[in-house]
Amino acid sequence: MKSFDKSLEIETEEEGNAQKQENNSEASHNVTPLLLDSWKPYKGTRANVKGQLLKLRDCLESVCGIQWYGFATLGILTAVLSFLMDFSVAKLLQAHLWLYGKLEGHILLQFLCWTLYPACICAFASSFSHNICPFSTGSGVPEVRTMLSGIEVPHYLSLTNMFTKFLGLTCTLAAGSTVFLGKVGPFVHLSTMLGAYLDRLCRLIQGKKKDAGTEMMVVAAAVGVASCFGAPVSGVLFSVEVMSSHFALRHYCPCFFSAACGGLTFHLLSVWSRDGETLQALFKTNFPTATPFFPLEILLFALLGLLCGAGSRFYLFCHRWILKFTKTNRVFLTMLTTEKGLYSGLVVFFLALLTFPHSAGQYLASKCTTKQLLTSLLDSRQWSSQSHNASVRLELDSLEWSSSGAPIFLSLAFFLLMKMWMLVLACTLPLPAGYFMPVFFGSPVKTEILRVRHDLFHGAAAFSGAVTHTLSPALLAVELTGQVTHAVPALLSTLLANALARSRNGLSFYDGLSISKKLPHLPSLKKACPQLPSTPLGQVMGVKSVQLQKAAGPAEVQSAVSNSSEAQIPVVDSHGMQRAVDIHALY
């Protein structure tokens, strides 16, 4: 018993000592808090800065929501990235042409300079993308469509992917007209990645919980196109048509606002860099406004649209065939799996060999950059009349088209045929690249060949619209050139080309990419099941005990609600023709 009492006394003493130590520690904490939090200096200053930031947030929110500042920032940053990429690519192309010109008189050195430069830079882009982030190759538009449909695609919005895609795309564009690829699709992906980070920042500032906010991503898809050309309206419409099943009505206003910020920033940066004199069209044209076209030329525009529609179907067939061939052929499959850099280098070397100015390149205006090619094709003057008039001096771009001494229209026809299959081959390259702008070139060439007076961009809008199954390229051509008087002929050609391209449930370019990559996407129900609108409701939902007609009155609705034991009541046209109109849930 004594030992038991002693043990109790020892335990009580230990508890008392522990309580005294806790009290002493609390007192010391109240007296000297900086000693315990010595790793957080300047506590008062930090509190003051935090208070000022909170006041700034309240002031900004009093004007409009934080989300709108995010939309403006998204447009501005995307335009800055687009301008920096264009500036870097222009300097690299200028250096390449300067070195090629310095080697004048040495055919072998010029050949090595012309072929090895794009081959090495594309091999680097492919190897860098494969080793750092394999998800950065390709266009990125099919992946964005998949993410906007609510399916999570891992690693496609990471910071590593954004850096890799930006650098790889810069290298691809620096290869020039040899590779003949664009940047529209990758910039949609870049803008989406940037929008995802800005969405997180806005939610952090607002103190909201992390949520899968798709509004910023939808806006980013429109900004990506608008920031490439400084064309906000056509950029929004293009993204609406490509992501048609994922756009809500409430997204239109943020899309136009952000795209306008991006387009204005792109034009201002061009002015400040002395690339332009004022806010003007990206491609200068001077078409007559008094009589832009004669009524009989409408038939020519319609014929051009039908030709572009037929050409688009042939191009899409070749594109799907080459993608299937590279995935079934053992040699291509092995190289595209293990030796992507080597494959890109060999293909680009072959393309550069064909475009060498002392060989077939003299018929392809290969010394011109992509922008110079499009500017010359959209020239309002007739090249044939210039070439026959010795007193009129041809511009540099026009001289490049006739440098071989052959007729200009022969060079244009050769350019069209060669670039068609070369572009199909370039689409197999495993590097970041866009495929919209190259198809924008095909039909200005057809327009130049077919036109009898100054027509312009009708073919460009028709062919690119037929390939992508969109109508916005017609508006894009108007915004790029500023020629509003030719909007109706361009729209007519684009409509007819789309009608021919969509016939017999033809797939668009991006639908083909989604199927090739086995990405989940939402196909058109009318294409997948044309008889769906006339399908009776009973075949889909089974026999329902309670149904409501579309013209039912309050008494019938009350009777159906009281007699129904199910959570939902289908609404049909009539009991005789049970086609679904809506389904109402009972709460």
From TrEMBL:
Record-level GO cellular component terms: plasma membrane
Protein's cellular compartments: Membrane
Record InterPro entries: Cl-channel_core, Cl_channel_volt-gated, ClC
Disordered: annotated span: 1-28
Gene3D superfamilies noted in UniProt: Clc chloride channel (1.10.3080.10)
Signal sequence coordinates: none
Membrane topology: Multi-pass membrane protein
Compositional bias segments (type: Polar residues): 18-28
TM segment ranges: 66-85, 105-125, 166-188, 216-240, 252-273, 293-316, 337-356, 408-435
Gene Ontology MF annotations: voltage-gated chloride channel activity
UniProt entry keywords in alphabetical sequence: CBS domain, Membrane, Repeat, Transmembrane, Transmembrane helix
Name recorded for this polypeptide: Chloride channel K
